[in-house]
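User: Fold this one for me? It's Helix-turn-helix domain-containing protein.
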Amino acid sequence: MSHSRRERTESDSNTVLSALGNKYSAEILCAAGSPKSAQALSEDIKIPIATCYRRIEELVDAGLLTCEGRQLSEEGRRTNIYRRTLDEIEVDFSDTEPQYSQKRRTEAKNRLHDQLHE
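Assistant: Here's what I get for Helix-turn-helix domain-containing protein.
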């Protein structure tokens, strides 16, 4: 799959780079290769749930994580399920402003991943 490139505003780049620069963001993205709730992500990477929710919000705002739907938790509450939207991101600092390109995850890859990990 090729890297997708689109015109990005300085604000887009700043949002993405800021989200990636926060503590635990990379760990959340790594753990969210398959659909997971905030609680599961928090437990997987051993961070407080409040911190996990803040990072999730930043990653969703930056377009790096998406809410794939809702499911019932063990306590019977409806919870959002998240998955990362990309597999790779490359940052280029050679210009006056950082530029990035990303390798997006396809629906086909998500379905295959889900089938292999059921």
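One thing worth pointing out: The mean pLDDT is 82.
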